[in-house]
Amino acid sequence: MLRTSFALLVISIGSAVFLSSTAPLSANPPGKRLAGAHSAERRALARSILSSPQISLLEYHVSGNRDQATALHNIEQTANGKPAKCSYYGNAPGGSTKLSITMLRAINQLVREGYSFRITEVAGGSHSSRSRHYAGVAFDIDFLNGRKVKWGHPTYRRFMQRCRELGATETLGPGSSGHSTHVHIAWPRPKL
Fold first, then answer.
1. Which run of H or of E encompasses 147?
2. What is the tally of structural domains in the chain?
3. Does residue 24 fall inside a structural domain?
4. I need a surface site. Which of 40, 71, 86, 92 has the fewest CB within 10 A?
5. 45 belongs to a structural domain
6. What residues make up the domain containing 94?
């Protein structure tokens, strides 16, 4: 008698529960199963971001350049199981990257804690040549809790601190060079 086991992935985000079955366990080596689970979680987290009324995703670059690497496009690409596109202008390298699951989890957690914000860039846009945006581990916001980010904003420092508690290792905002009108949050680059 042949026995085949199946894996069932259960992902809970807020009050939503996502179920995803995978191929028979015997058909996938352990690394493949893990990659499939991560892919399903990445898609589910991106879908949750897309459906959140507390998150606005910019459909254009603040630079005025137009491409398929806007914050909205990056989250849609990820929700559809595709890599997020990087821009190809200025310092941007082009190509694509997978968005960090840790970053996507943190964005969803911030929403659960009551924050609302507008994401201006994820993997797209032109940043410094070694920017973590291109590695899929950073995002920028320019509105937080209904107010424009600038010096004197009442909650941007607390937001940055909460992001550090959620694993971010790079948090820049008003007072940091080049960040007077937005907050930049980044996690460590993935290990190769």
1. strand 147-148
2. 1
3. no
4. 40
5. no
6. 55-186
Residue indicated by tokens 């957690």 = 109
Question: What is the predicted pLDDT for the residue at 14?
Answer: 52
Cα–Cα distance list, 135 to 8, 49, 145, 153, 175 (Å): 29, 19, 27, 29, 25
pLDDT (tens digit, 9 = 90+) per residue, 43-95? 999 999 999 999 999 999 999 999 999 999 999 999 999 999 999 999 999 99
Residue 26 lies in a domain: no
**C-alpha–C-alpha distance, residues 14 and 112, integer Å:** 7
User: Do 123 and 69 form a contact (C-beta atoms < 8 A)?
Assistant: yes
Q: What are phi and psi of 135, to 5 degrees?
A: -90, 0
176 found inside a domain: yes
Please write the tens of the pLDDT for every residue from 12-43.
455 444 444 444 444 444 445 555 778 999 99
In 25-145, the DSSP E strands lie at: 55-57, 84-85, 96-97, 117-121, 138-144
